[in-house]
Protein: L-rhamnonate dehydratase
Amino acid sequence: MVRMEYTGLPRIKHVRAFTVRGGGADYHDQGEGHWIDDHIATPMARYPEYRQSRQSFGINALGTLVVEIEAEDGTIGFAVTTGGEPACFLVERHLARFLEGRNPAEYEKIWDQMYFSTQYYGRKGLVVNAISGVDLALWDLLGKLRGEPVHALLGGAVRDELQFYATGSRPDLAKDMGFIGGKMPLHHGPAGGIEGLRKNIAELATMRERVGPDFWLMLDCWMALDVDYATRLALAANEHGLKWIEEAISPDDYWGYAALKRNVPRGMLVTTGEHEATRWGFRMLLEMDCCDILQPDVGWCGGMTELLKISALADAHGKLVVPHGSSVYSYHFVITRHNSPFAEFLMMHPASSEVVPMFHPQLIGEPVPVNGRLRASALDKPGFGVELNRDLPMHRPYAR
Ligand SMILES: C[C@H](O)[C@H](O)CC(=O)C(=O)O
Ligand SMILES: [Mg+2]
Structure:
């Protein structure tokens, strides 16, 4: 039997990896005075010298990774994620071999080979960020080659628009801008003692007064707490209608999350997953009943190929998947899934007072919510529908 070339797509010619600094996919890499680096509770706050600023302990040490995949006909797919120079090494010196010369439609096999070839030193963190970047660039290329948006490749939109909640320092302003809720960073952790706990609750109470009884308010704890502190915070915050408590403890402490989920007041949601990776990591969260909403970051969890598996697993467990940040990579997913009913929008304006594109200045044509919403038709462009801002100074440290 003659086996037909089933896609007619040009093969992959070249994979390239670059670093770029200043916001964008490494959204913590912001200038001074930004709300995202203003005394936010972290696991490093146990050391007073690292308490005021997350940049002081290197939250922005990596910078952005840009992956470009060029096909033989000159079409280029690209993606951005966090990873910087070490991720460039991984992409150019290890992962590129699984793509060059291949058919871009073979994303399952390519993912499998990237993951299992790095498993002896990878599995989570930086290596999976790099795999995610390559995977997203591949989906972008596939969409561009087929002339279809990624959401169409995923099965198509299941609703006409996306609805967003906003993460930032001013949920009250987010409400005026039409968002459905506001997630604030927690400012004090266990090192701040009872005084800090009271300040956390006072901030929440002030915001509740400003936004009224119905607007969603959430707290992002960025892995800073222990189960006892998180439980006390949740109980006190319940009086002020906290909708969810996010990433309260270490992502490795599945047992702690299971305990926290049992401890929080009925109706309050426990969310986590932005620093979790792959179907196996999320399986732990699901089977140990760690949370109510999974929040994979599309650029960190293994990319779109892996997110589809994570979301199917979550669906079978009756759980929602609301990806962390990740801009267009998240929007193209959320619009296609019933168990992803709304999306996050990270307010990257330094004072959270204006809507600016989440990955500014790296993407050209990055859509932003208007009145807290985005029409599905705004995503109707080939691939992820954005272009790379080539005016930025990009560096290719491991060119081959
Ligand atoms: C605000 C949080 O500390 C973090 O910077 C962002 C995040 O975890 C989220 O958007 O979720
Ligand atoms: Mg978070």
In short: The longest strand covers residues 12-20. The chain has eleven helices and 14 strands. Residues 12-26+62-147 form a domain with the Enolase-like; domain 1 fold (CATH 3.30.390.10). The first helix runs from residue 84 to 95.
